[in-house]
Write a structure and sequence with these properties.
The protein contains 3 helices and 11 strands, in the order E-E-E-E-E-H-E-E-E-E-H-E-E-H. With about 150 residues, it is mainly beta. It has a single domain, classed as OB fold (Dihydrolipoamide Acetyltransferase, E2P). The radius of gyration is 15 Å and the shape is globular. It starts with 9 loop residues before the first strand and ends with a helix.
């Protein structure tokens, strides 16, 4: 079991898919889920930031997690969604191939990442859980924001 600093025995998470793999984000950082629409490109932005979208008068930076985590980035489908997250004063629209569910993960099923785990992905993850025989990678919002800020300045 991994200790992540949550004050409860369960963590409410939004479960989503990138390619064939499932990821989760703590519900405390998820603001909403939006249907796909083409982002407005921003000149000279890194490829993992394909543009911006507007939502309720605000501008959100679109982040392609697939590129950040070294997945193929297929064209959007009817299942493609934006997961709007808010962390450390930053609001982002993360591209997800599909949003699967809102679920409660018992803290007791969270495990430390295996040593052989891809290091590029491992830095963005807090833990891994097994749900019905399928692994779920729990993203670390703080590391995600830190990595994106570093990419934007590079």
């Amino acid at each position: 079991m991994v200790t992540l600093g949550y004050s409860t025995d369960t963590i409410v998470c939004l479960l989503f898919r990138l390619g064939s793999e499932e990821f989760a984000l703590p519900g405390t950082v998820v603001r909403e889920v939006l249907r796909w629409r083409d982002p407005t490109p921003v000149p000279s932005a890194p490829t993992l930031l394909p543009g911006i979208i507007t939502q309720r008068g605000g501008v959100l930076t679109v982040v392609d997690l697939r590129r950040l985590l070294s997945f193929a980035a297929p064209p959007p489908t009817r299942l493609t969604r934006y997961v709007v997250v808010s962390h450390d004063g930053l609001e982002l629209a993360l591209i997800a191939d599909a949003v699967v569910d809102l679920l409660e993960l018992p803290a007791s099923i969270l495990e430390v990442l295996p040593p052989a785990f891809n290091p590029q992905r491992a830095q963005l993850l807090q833990a891994i859980a097994n749900r019905g025989g399928r692994p779920i990678a729990l993203l670390d919002p703080a590391e995600l924001v830190t990595t994106l800020r570093a990419e934007a300045q590079a």
